[in-house]
């Protein structure tokens, strides 16, 4: 029996399946070693923007989808998928319920610590909301930066150095980026206060956080492109920000695929999945 982390809820966001930067193997490994009553997929799980342009759906991306469905079918896990801006093709389907899987705009998580508003957070991004063309240009620039980042870290590995995020370093040093993140966090916390909630859980800005803002517990699940982070709710109502770097120390990744994943490699499902998703995003 696989060792697992047993929690009440898991919240993750910004996996960006359909892009070469998505850490699909890592996030699937994370879900395989977590047992939870509820899984909240807080937006940008599938990157419809990139799939419309030049994105590529891989077998690793399919394994993640299979894992989520396995949680629904065999593990009695409730899965709530919240729309993000990159998977905005889901907007025309909301709200929708399939047994223990639901598609929603936002969600109220009732915990022992109080009521938490869960939403992706793109509604507070003026560029995404009002200037979609500029948002797409920004996304293309971010993708270019990530490609540079991969090359840069390839050289770092050759020299025996740890991973270094160029985009995170830029966000931390550029005044406008720091200001945007701060305003975003304040606006999200203010909405939670208006809704009478104790806290708020969001994603979107790829900046993981666990802090108090004006009496509101602000949590951001980060992403599975660079930070590789998730939020878990323990059974006592306590929330924790988990990094994959720490998680994999306790639950190491196998060098080879498990038997059930190796069997999936022989299936033609990935191409079928990509065709279905491309039809949806278009």
Automatic annotation (TrEMBL):
Protein name as it appears in the record = UDP-2,3-diacylglucosamine diphosphatase
Q: What Gene Ontology molecular function terms does this protein carry?
A: metal ion binding; UDP-2,3-diacylglucosamine hydrolase activity
Protein's GO biological process: lipid A biosynthetic process
Calcineurin-like phosphoesterase domain mapped to chain residues: 10-207
Q: Native species of this protein?
A: Oleiharenicola lentus
* Listed Pfam families: Metallophos
Instruction: Quote a single Gene Ontology cellular component term.
Output: membrane
Annotated InterPro entries: Calcineurin-like_PHP (IPR004843), LpxH-like (IPR043461), Metallo-depent_PP-like (IPR029052)
Superkingdom classification of source: Bacteria
Q: Which keywords, in A-to-Z order, does the entry hold? A: Cell inner membrane, Cell membrane, Manganese, Membrane, Metal-binding
